[in-house]
Amino acid sequence: MTNKSFNILCAITAVAVVLAGIAVFSQPRLETSYPQGISLLPNLVQQAEHLKTVVIRQKGETISLDREGGAWRARERHGFEADSEKVANLLIALARMTKIEGKTSDPARYARLEVEDPKDATAASRQITLIDDTGKQVGDIVLGKRQYNMGTQGNNTYVRLSGDPQVWLASGEVEDSATGVSGWLKKDVIDIPSAQVARVTVTHPNGEKLVAKRQPVEAPNMIIENLPKSTAAFEDGTPDTYAKLLSAMVLEDIVAAADKPFPKEQTHDVVIEGVTGWRVEMQMAELDGVHWIKMKGFPPGPAKPGADKITDTSGTDWTKVMNDLNSRFGDYAIAVPMYQVQTVKSRMTDLLQRAAGE
Fold first, then answer.
1. pLDDT tens-digit profile of 281-312?
2. DSSP letters of 118-183?
3. Over 90: is that where the pLDDT of 231 sits?
4. Backbone phi, then psi, for 299, in 5-degree steps?
5. For residues 284 and 344, is the Cβ–Cβ distance under 8 A?
6. What is the DSSP string of 18-37?
7. Which of 102, 200, 229, 331 is deepest in the core (most CB within 10 A)?
8. Strand stretches in the chain, DSSP E
9. Is the CB of residue 138 less than 8 Å from the CB of residue 132?
10. What is the DSSP letter of 322?
């Protein structure tokens, strides 16, 4: 999300907060000692343009999101991109929250409303600290249990402001309950349609090699190139799963590549070649039950005489795709869902059993 888009959202938020205040104060109500309709974080809208850091503390973990230009980056993940839209939605939700009713100020009752100190890994609360570009706090709030309402009224949330023992019931809620650093990362990695993949070569840790390819390159389906000739034809489209390795790939977590060495005896080497000459080299290792990959992209080079390559009609700038892949992920190891790379782990014996219908 760009600075311009973010500022527009904040402007919309400012109008919404003002209108909400007018609506509340124009309605007949009982006199109380609590200022209903007042924004919980009145400085947020005014200081949104200067907001630099959002710190989220939850379940004993700290997530620091720093704003750089038009992007947010996760400090605990070496500055990898955060989901800017998710951060913007968080800020908008906070800016819209207003006080409804004062509740307890007894710390012994905080846990019941889930506004206890979130430093404990078992705590259900979330603390959001907002810091501007001068290092000054714009707001600091602990979000607790939601109060669910029927119909279109919207839900409310129990909250506690930093330095104030008073717990408030506030209008609105922060819908995104992402936990952990990875919940705030930009999830998309790469999305190359399977039809753009011409050949996939997998080399297992023991040196065994398996090759899936289109023959000819214009063919709609993949075949396993090095299957024994007597092997029955696949009925379940198994070879085509190799062409889907880079399709809609998402990440679950990310760390610096140097911090996640891949033992040779656990590493699968994969080369994915495109029908137009691009190439992605990928390493995959399952470590402590998590599937990690490292990738490097290579744009199409000059056509070689007799090369099995077709003209691209998709309009895709493959040089840009590969450069973007390297720019975003060249220095990282990426944790991906098991389903994304399960095919890589298949051995020749597994494929023979499938082909035989066993």
1. 999 999 999 999 999 999 998 765 555 556 66
2. TTSTT---EEEEEEETTS-EEEEEEEEEEE--STTS--EEEEEETT---EEEEE--------TGGG
3. no
4. -70, 165
5. yes
6. HHHHHHHHTS-----SS-TT
7. 200
8. 51-58, 61-68, 71-74, 80-81, 99-102, 126-132, 137-147, 156-161, 167-171, 188-190, 197-203, 209-214, 222-224, 249-250, 253-256, 267-274, 279-287, 290-298, 332-336
9. yes
10. H
- The predicted model gives 175-190 an average pLDDT of 84
C-alpha–C-alpha distance, residues 139 and 7, integer Å: 18
β-bridge pairing 267-274 and 167-171: unpaired
**168 close to 144: Cβ distance less than 8 angstroms:** no
Are 169 and 147 a contacting pair, CB within 8 Å? yes
Contacts with 84 (C-beta within 8 Å, 6 or more apart), sequence order: 1, 6, 70, 71, 72, 186
| Residues 281, 275: Cα–Cα separation, whole Å | 15
Q: Count of CB atoms within 10 A of residue 340's CB?
A: 22
Tokens 């919940």, residue? 183
- Tell me the whole-structure pTM to 2 decimals: 0.80
